[in-house]
Design goal:
The protein is an alpha/beta fold. 36% of the residues lie in helices and 17% in strands.
């Protein structure tokens, strides 16, 4: 996957994406990072990219012409996403879809947002990390790309771990334990020491269902509905 990022702060990248498995995958060219500085497409001496909003109001708005020139320099061949609190909420299903893309372009907004006309012209899709507001899209995009890149084949050492982790089947992941068997008087559940793989699988499924029902009833309802259809 080639991720082209339009940002006012290209120095923020790769950031956390340059470490651990994401950084290793970047070095091994399992994914590609292409950074575009939006300020490079300003035409005034101050390299400003924003102006006051029509109709009044607080804050500034990123100019359509500047963003348009930045996008034109990229000539996007895949989908274009704008990090915005108005957008559809990013989730594990989104990450799976993005991991299958050959390339995508991401716009990190600032100020009060971007002139609506350039979003309409380029048919930009808006995407949100959640129901809260950040000072810019860069931090949110790093989280989204982290969730995506780890799903690209060959990035994780054990591909099976993707199948069992939270949200992979509309359930939260079951509790995990490692050595020592007795830690401060707290014991590992006996079933995990039994060697009976069928019983372990049944225990883990039950734990996942109970955790999801308690902590994320919205997901649990989705899980029940999907299993009823099947």
């Amino acid at each position: 996957m080639k991720a082209t990022i339009l940002t006012l702060y290209p120095e923020m990248f790769p950031g956390t994406l340059g470490f651990s498995l994401m950084g290793k995958a970047l070095a091994e060219k399992k994914w590609e990072l292409n950074l575009i500085n939006i300020r490079d497409f300003s035409t005034n001496n101050y390299r400003s990219v924003d102006d006051t909003p029509f109709g009044g109001g607080a804050g500034m708005v990123m100019q359509a012409e500047v963003v348009d020139r930045a996008l034109g320099s990229v000539n996007p061949k895949g989908p274009i996403y704008y990090l915005s609190p108005r957008g559809q909420t990013f989730n594990q299903e989104t990450a799976k879809k993005w991991a299958e893309l050959t390339e995508a372009t991401f716009i990190c907004g600032h100020f009060e947002g971007i002139d609506e006309r350039v979003l309409e012209k380029w048919q930009v899709q808006e995407i949100s990390l959640g129901d809260f507001v950040l000072s810019g899209g860069e931090v949110a995009l790093m989280a989204m790309l982290d969730a995506t890149i780890r799903l690209i084949p060959g990035v994780l050492g054990n591909a099976e771990s993707i199948m069992e982790e939270s949200f992979s089947n509309d359930l939260l992941e079951y509790p995990q334990y490692t050595k020592p068997q007795n830690w401060q008087g707290r014991l590992v559940p006996e079933v995990l020491l039994s060697g009976n793989h069928a019983k372990i699988a049944a225990w883990r499924k039950e734990q996942s269902e109970n955790l999801t029902k308690t902590r994320r009833p919205d997901l649990y309802e989705k899980y029940l509905a999907k299993n009823e259809r099947n």
